[in-house]
Design goal:
The structure holds 2 protein chains of 2 kinds. Chain A is an all-alpha fold. Chain A starts with a helix and ends in a 13-residue tail after the last helix. Chain A has helices spanning about 5-25, 40-60, 70-95, 100-115, 120-140. Chain B has helices spanning about 5-25, 30-35, 45-70, 80-90, 95-130, 135-150, 155-170, 185-190, 195-215, 235-255, 260-275, 290-310, 315-330, 335-340, 340-365, 365-370, 380-395, 400-420, 425-445, 450-455, 460-490, and strands at about 170-175, 180. By secondary structure, chain B is an all-alpha fold. Chain B is built from 21 helices and 2 strands. Classes of the chains: A mainly alpha, B mainly alpha. Chains A and B meet through α1, α2, α3, α4 and α5 of A and α7, α9, α17, α18 and α19 of B.
């Protein structure tokens, strides 16, 4: 049993408990006229019982010891940056438009992934952005946000 | 005949080609590939887009075996069994034979699977017209128990993830009363959570994060010349029985909820090892270890289409994505699909035949090209995959909220990878959640709250008996396991 798995089961347990409490605010009804809260409460209770069993099981098993090293730290930083850039893309997408935001996204992610030369990342970003814009907006007629370009 | 129009043939070709390309890329798999490429079907007419989606599904199944054999890197989990003996054959200079047998076995199994689909899907669809909410409820319960038992991990963990998938479906407008549930006055949440961003997040984005932490290193690519693609007579003779057995095993497994492709290829491998006269070769390049599992894998893919088309219930994550694609085109698979849209059903069946032929013709000569795609460095490939996922997800509903769901489930999917828990039960729970809720509430309404009547109908009652058998099997298995552990400790 790893520490991360134990934490996961505890988090799942907390989630199920909170969900069950929230669902009790819905109208549960009875067996002859089940209300909108009937199935959610049922699922919440079952989930809470299951997750509690898993949590207890997790705490009864011995923890495996895992030693971290510098490589792990670098990987985690890379992951953190990846997640940050992807989340930052969300507000960028509508505001800057698909062309510019996809270019920035691909540029930054390729640099974080380890692509050394800036010109390679720039070319990759431009090519990806242009290709997908042409494919989705022009060929497949999917409306993508124009963003800043709409002012031009 | 409309499957043979130029537009539909091009769509079929594009589907299998692109599906194979994406299926070749490590980690993405048929689920991720189909989800990733689903937005490419927008803007096409209904029949063409369904053909494209089916081609992508088939193509991605095949793509994984190419890298398994040439690089020992399974493109998807169902091909990991092929890697065991396939790559060993490649190291001995028999890569071409392995690829050819894999392609031929997949073609035969896929073709037989399509024939069986043609035979069984229409009567099952007609039979399902008599299904009421009680039957759908029993299918959801049976699906839950079978799936939790078949993922290979802990039963309780899989069941827990299944429940989590069902919990997600309770967010939004209640399907029966129309009341808003758990939306916290957020308009986007009141529409519910879309399936596609969840699937893309759990399978696609999670894989991207995983590669960000630990970029995969591609080993030496074993080159195959065109003239080496022919297996010897002895290899072909040894492959016949495994291909037939794999087909016979894979198809019924495809009908059962769960990761049918993985389960069928594992079962086939074990069976071939038992039946083989060359047991010592297994793990060192036995042709049966490639022929059987690959055939089982493809036969299972055809089998999984039956519950989807005839009942409207996808029992595997990949067919859940297909369902999503069908719904986006305004087509609802189910009991009335085959009778009401017979033209579309037979079009899909015809395109599956054509897709099979295209895969056979396309993949063997181009095998070197497909395999070389894995040489594309992850720092170039992954940003492109992220861009495709982002734009693809947005294009479904033109909603940045879906992008947020994609990211959240990407993080969840990555956490599940770290703790070694499969996300597949979440998807199947997501799909069956609505079926379960509608089935339960409508059944209770009809029965006036009398639970006993849920079990009285013959079909539903039979399903519950099977559920009971599965539960007893699980409990007995757990007790036996604990007993063996306590004996070994003594």
């Amino acid at each position: 049993m790893t520490l991360s798995k134990r934490i996961f089961f505890v988090a799942f347990n907390v989630f199920c408990i909170v969900y069950t409490i929230l669902c009790t605010q819905l109208e549960v009804g009875d067996f002859s006229t089940p209300g909108p809260g009937f199935v959610p409460v049922f699922l919440g209770v079952v989930g809470t019982v299951l997750s509690s069993c898993l949590t207890i099981q997790a705490f009864r098993q011995q923890l495996e010891k895992k030693e971290g090293n510098d490589e792990d730290k670098t990987s985690l930083i890379r992951l953190g940056l990846y997640v940050l850039v992807c989340f930052a893309f969300l507000p960028m997408f509508d505001f800057l438009g698909s062309l510019i935001s996809v270019f920035i996204l691909v540029l930054l992610l390729s640099k974080i992934s380890g692509l050394k030369k800036w010109w390679k990342s720039t070319v990759l970003g431009l090519a990806t952005s242009a290709f997908f814009y042409c494919l989705f907006a022009m060929v497949l007629q999917v409306p993508l946000p124009q963003g800043l370009i709409s002012f031009i | 005949m409309s499957a043979l129009t130029i537009q539909n043939l091009i769509a079929c070709f594009a589907g299998v080609f692109v599906g194979t390309v994406v299926g070749v890329l490590p980690g993405i798999g048929p689920v991720g590939a189909t989800a990733l490429l689903l937005p490419f079907s927008f803007g096409l007419d209904t029949s063409t887009s369904l053909i494209l989606l089916s081609g992508i599904f088939y193509g991605s199944m095949y793509g994984g075996s190419t890298t398994s054999i040439l690089l020992n890197v399974p493109g998807e989990s169902a091909s990991m069994v092929t890697a065991i003996d396939g790559h060993e054959m490649a190291k001995k200079g028999r890569a071409g034979a392995a690829l050819a047998v894999s392609a031929i076995g997949s073609f035969i199994a896929g073709t037989v699977g399509v024939v069986l689909l043609m035979i069984f899907a229409p009567p099952l669809g007609n039979f399902a017209l008599s299904f009421g909410p009680q039957e759908y409820l029993s299918i959801a319960v049976l699906g839950m128990l079978l799936l939790s038992n078949l993922t290979g991990g802990s039963f309780l963990v899989s069941l827990g993830m299944f429940i989590l998938g069902m919990i997600i479906t309770t967010i939004g407008i209640d399907p029966i009363s129309g009341i808003n549930r758990l939306s916290f006055d957020i308009l986007d949440l009141s529409k519910g959570i879309e399936m596609l961003p969840v699937i893309m997040g759990l399978f696609g984005m999670a894989e991207v994060f995983s590669v960000a932490v630990e970029p995969y290193k591609v080993g030496e690519l074993i080159k195959v010349k065109f003239r080496d693609l022919y297996p010897t007579k002895k290899e072909l003779k040894r492959s016949v029985a495994p291909i037939l057995r794999g087909t016979a095993i894979g198809f019924p497994i495809g009908l059962i909820p769960g990761p049918a492709a993985v389960v069928s290829s594992l079962v086939s491998y074990k069976m071939e090892k038992n039946f083989s006269k060359h047991k010592e070769e297994f793990g060192h390049g036995a042709i049966e270890g490639v022929a059987g599992p690959e055939s089982a894998n493809n036969a299972a893919a055809s089998g999984t289409m039956i519950p989807l088309l005839a009942l409207g219930i996808p029992f595997a994550p990949a067919t859940a994505v297909l369902l999503s694609g069908f719904m986006l085109q305004g087509v609802a698979p189910g009991p009335t699909f085959i009778s009401g849209h017979a033209d579309l059903f037979w079009l899909i069946v015809a395109s599956m035949y054509i897709g099979n032929v295209m895969l056979l013709i396309l993949n063997l000569p181009l095998v070197g090209v497909f395999a070389s795609l894995t040489k594309v460095r992850p720092e170039i490939l992954m940003p492109i995959v992220v861009a495709v996922m982002m734009i693809g997800t947005y294009s479904v509903n033109n909603s940045t909220f879906d992008l947020l769901i994609l990211m959240i489930f990407g993080v969840i999917g990555y956490i599940l990878k770290i703790v070694n828990i499969s996300p597949a039960p979440i998807i199947v729970g997501f799909v069956l959640g609505n079926v379960f809720e509608k089935g339960l509430r409508q059944s209770l309404l009809v029965a006036g709250g009398d639970f006993a009547t849920l079990f009285m109908r013959p079909i539903a009652g039979s399903m519950y008996l099977v559920c009971l058998a599965v539960l007893i099997w699980v409990i007995v298995g757990q007790v036996k396991k604990k007993y063996k552990v306590s004996i070994s400790e003594d």
